[in-house]
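Here is my example:
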Amino acid sequence: MKLEVNGRSSEVSAAPDTPLLYVLRNDLGLAGTRFGCGSGQCGACFVLVDGKAVASCDLPVWTLENKKIVTVEGLGNGDLHPVQKALIAEQAAQCGYCMSGIAVAAVGLLSKNKNPSEAEVREALDKNLCRCGSHNRVVKAVLRAAKEMT
């Protein structure tokens, strides 16, 4: 089947019910998207599908033909996205395992809402779990990115 990932068309041979996460990591070599819980509840595996942040660990690849998929590797078009730069500047990552999913979710939010409130950022990132407890720095980083992008 054909998938459009990070602006590139790719042919993949996978069983239709294979989770997108496995295709991204194993077939396309895009290892930035992480496996967390395997049930779509932690946010580590988030990617953008047609601009919306979704869990890729339980999303069957057959549902994605004719959809645009963006992974953390595709956020900045060859450079770091302003969200990624802000996450670094605000020292938002500790272990970093959850950061790819958080960055993707934040970019999804800012593509729809250029000037979110703190409450809107928290709501948009509600499905992203961070065991290190850096949520406040993440929120600060997303608000910073929003300002820098306007």
